[in-house]
Design a protein that fits this description.
Chain B: This is Anti-ECF sigma factor. The complex is a heterodimer of chains A (about 200) and B (about 230). By secondary structure, chain A is an all-alpha fold. Chain A has 2 domains: about 15-110, Rna Polymerase Sigma Factor, Chain: A (Orthogonal Bundle); about 145-195, Arc Repressor Mutant, subunit A, CATH 1.10.10. Chain A is about 65% helix and about 0% strand. Chain B has a domain at about 10-45 and about 105-230: Jelly Rolls. Chain B contains 6 helices and 9 strands. In chain B, the strands form 2 sheets. A 6-stranded antiparallel beta sheet of chain B has the order 1-2-3-9-4-7, with helices on both faces. Chain B has a 3-stranded antiparallel beta sheet with strand order 6-5-8, with no helix packed on it. In chain B, helix 1 packs across helix 3 (about 35-55) and helix 2 (about 20-35) crosses helix 3. Chain B is elongated and about 65 Å long. The chains are: A mainly alpha (about 200), B alpha+beta (about 230).
């Protein structure tokens, strides 16, 4: 747990990513408990580590990880594999639950049914790369990032601190935090655009 | 809506990672409702969050964790109707070209949900005068160490030159203003931090209405205190 949270060795695999999505679809379609058990085995400990980074106690991290997985079961019918990878969807559930519990409020989000929602009228070119494949590409791009960029991205996602607090923590100027983040985000995004 | 000014990538990342204050989230989610481009970026940043999550080694859960969760699921299953029915497909209304003026048509849900229920449009806001030509409506229910409010600036009125002690984010909802950075119209966001100095001027014949959130603790170094100071003696 000291140092970085992401593992350099675990190879990201599109087959796995597709499998996770299929399990969620199976839960939605037929309340498939075996699929849920497999999904739980993979994501439960990962959500726990996420919660632990914010909370610092095993007990509450465990509780919130269990609750996140409960919500995965309950909300499985809302999962759309065309819109997000399984890992992305579970991340947003964990993030929202953390904000709900630690800040006692809801994460403010766009309402897809909002009549004021402005939709891009230019049709997006056919998505050649699926969300699962994209998830793997992002994960690979993250691993490829230089250490100094990876650290700021990681702190952004795994700690409840602002960019100026990241600057204090790393003892670097705020401008440096921002430029490293911008570089990292640029690479993560061009990685995606390069293939789609 | 022809949006030219967007939140910075770092701010959108902080929104996706869930580390912004509620005040800033409100501005971002309201802007995102009007901006497909920023919705797309946030989805990409959330995918980064997912990749980070998937890439961790994990922390072993209690041996009986799955059993416990399964037991809760069984309990819910005994009362199947606690499981929500699938939602009908989202109602997406593209804004017809004729509706696309220089104002937000009605209140985007993220903003509407934090306003009193009787406020259905910008017309319903019970403005309070802050200074000549400047009215405001504070959103008191929003958590922030700074402030969040709607601001209405009369044509030709200029806000005194000011810098920003902390993060200040402004979403234009109606009308426009011009400052050193450029011209801001409905849907545009001015995402300002640090020492950006600017002196916005409402530059058309109509009122300029915007949503302004700040994160700085009340240190009276921002735009509103400067306005307030001479009039209410704060």
């Amino acid at each position: 747990m000291n140092g970085t949270a992401t593992s350099r060795r675990a190879p990201a695999n599109p087959e796995d990513a597709r499998q996770y999505a299929d399990w969620i679809v199976a839960i939605a379609a037929s309340r498939d408990k075996a699929a849920f058990a497999r999904l739980f085995a993979h994501f439960g400990p990962r959500v726990k580590v996420y919660m632990f980074r914010f909370i610092g106690t095993q007990e509450m991290a465990e509780e919130l990880a269990q609750e996140t997985m409960m919500q995965v079961w309950r909300k499985a019918h809302l999962f759309d594999p065309q819109k997000a990878a399984a890992s992305t969807w579970i991340f947003t559930i964990a993030r929202n639950l953390r904000i709900d519990r630690l800040r006692q409020r809801k994460h403010i989000e766009v309402d897809d049914a909002d009549p004021t929602l402005i939709v891009d009228e230019t049709p997006i070119a056919d998505e050649i790369v699926s969300q699962s494949e994209q998830a793997v590409l992002v994960q690979e791009a993250l691993v490829e990032l230089p250490q100094d960029q990876r650290v700021v991205v990681e702190l952004s996602f795994f700690e409840d601190i602002s960019h100026s607090e990241i600057a204090e923590r790393l003892n670097i100027p705020l401008g440096t935090v921002k430029s490293r983040l911008r570089l990292a985000l640029g690479k993560l995004r061009t990685g995606l655009e390069g293939v789609s | 809506m022809n949006i030219k000014h967007h939140p910075t990538d770092e701010t959108l990342l902080a929104y996706a990672s869930g580390t912004l204050s509620q005040a800033m989230e409100l501005v971002i989610a309201t802007h995102m409702t009007l901006c497909p481009q920023c919705r797309e970026k946030v989805a990409e940043f959330e995918a980064c969050g997912g990749a980070m999550l998937n890439g961790t080694d994990g922390l072993a859960m209690n041996v009986d964790a799955l059993d416990q969760v399964m037991a809760m699921i069984e309990q819910e299953g005994a009362n199947e109707n606690t499981i929500p029915a699938p939602l009908a497909s989202p109602r997406r209304v593209a804004v017809a070209p004729s509706m696309r003026g220089n104002a937000v048509p009605s209140l985007p849900t993220p903003l509407a949900s934090l306003l009193p229920e009787n406020i259905l449009s910008l017309e319903d806001i019970p403005w309070r005068t802050l200074a000549p030509g400047v009215k405001h409506f504070p959103l008191k229910s929003v958590q922030t160490k700074g402030s969040v409010r709607l601001l209405k600036i009369a044509p030709g009125i200029s806000i005194p030159d000011h810098g920003h002690g902390g993060h200040e984010m402004t979403l234009l909802l109606k009308g426009s203003y011009i400052d050193d950075v450029g011209r801001f119209c409905a849907g545009d966001v001015a995402d300002l931090t640090d020492d950006t100095d600017h002196q916005p001027i409402a530059d058309t014949a109509e009122d300029c209405i915007c949503l302004i959130a700040t994160d700085a603790p009340l240190k009276f170094n921002g735009i509103l205190p400067k306005l307030l100071q001479p009039f209410i003696g704060m």
